[in-house]
Hints:
Layout: H1 4-31, H2 34-58, H3 65-77, H4 81-119
Helix pairs in contact: 2-3, 3-4
Amino acid sequence: MTDPSADDLARANRIGRPIGRFMARWRRMIRRRPWLNTVYRIIITVLGLLVVVLGLILVPLPGPGWLIVFLGLTILGSEFHWARRVTSWLRMVLARFWTWWRERRARRRARQDAGDREDGRYRRGESG
């Protein structure tokens, strides 16, 4: 069986190539001017930190708090290696969690279906 996320990754790479080329050209242009590079890094740092802090404030509230934190780390990751490493680690942990969660749900569903069959409640089109 193939990895279901492999197709998503391939599609994201195809979509991201033009954007990546544009950003690489943009970044080369900025790096040629030291003062502009410094201003750019300051703006990215402040923006990334503001988004991370906003996300952390929103975590206990209903809504996409963690998603906003990941977005802020991605912004910081455009300039800082430590943020790219943290983001990669978080993606790996999240992928492992979702794999565990799907397996757990499948086991529970199988146990429930087996219990329904034993009780005689399992009929065509009915689950209980």
